[in-house]
Structures are given as C-alpha cells and as structure tokens.
Design a protein that fits this description.
mainly alpha, about 120 residues
Length: about 120
C-alpha cells in the first residue's frame, strides 16, 4: 500500500512538471513572436518586480527590528530609572564604601536597589 502511494505521488509530481514544461514552451513560443525590444522590456519588468519584492521584504524586516529595538530601549530605560531619593542614598553608600568608611559587605547597597511596591 505504501509503495503505491509513493508511485502515485511521483506520478503527480511528474504530471505537474510536464504541465510546467508545456506552459514554459508555450510562453517561449509566445514571446518569440514579439520583437527583441519587447522581450527585453518584459525581462526588465520581471527583474524590477523581483527587486521590488526583495526591497519590500527588507523594509518589513527592518521595521520589525526597529520595533524590537525600541521595545528593548524602553525596557532598559525603565529599568535604569530610579527616583532621586534612591539615587542619593545609593551615592552616599557607595561613597562611604569607596572612602573605606564602610565595608562593602556591611553596606545596604542592594537594599536601595530593590523596587519599592
């Protein structure tokens, strides 16, 4: 049973390939009726269409990346923002640790960085 389905699938693929080949031959015969200038114009338009498609994909990806970057930037800005009281308290504790007045292990630096809810 499985072998028959594989052969059926191959038949379908070859039938599609034959149809594509026939379509391509008809298209080439149709294009050969036109002048050289018209054929080149057609080729040029096809190339322009491909470039436009590629450019649209690039713009879509760029806008997606720009949106992701903006969201990351907002998140970083929000996480780095502290109110003035916390900033001043943290500066005082760091200054004390830097001057050797207070040992870093004995300080409360991490307590000031916790989010107040």
């Amino acid at each position: 049973m499985e072998l028959n389905t594989k052969f059926g699938e191959l038949e379908r693929i070859f039938t599609l390939y034959d149809a594509w080949r026939d379509y391509k031959v008809k298209l080439m015969n149709t294009l050969s009726d036109y002048s050289l200038l018209t054929r080149h114009l057609y080729d040029f338009l096809v190339i322009l269409l491909w470039f436009a498609t590629i450019k649209r994909l690039q713009i879509t990806l760029y806008l997606d990346y720009a949106t992701q970057y903006d969201e990351i930037r907002k998140t970083v800005t929000l996480s780095n923002s502290m109110n003035n009281r916390q900033t001043q308290m943290l500066k005082d504790k760091i200054r004390e640790a830097a001057y050797g007045i207070l040992l870093y292990e004995n300080g409360t630096h991490s307590d000031h960085l916790k989010v107040e809810r």
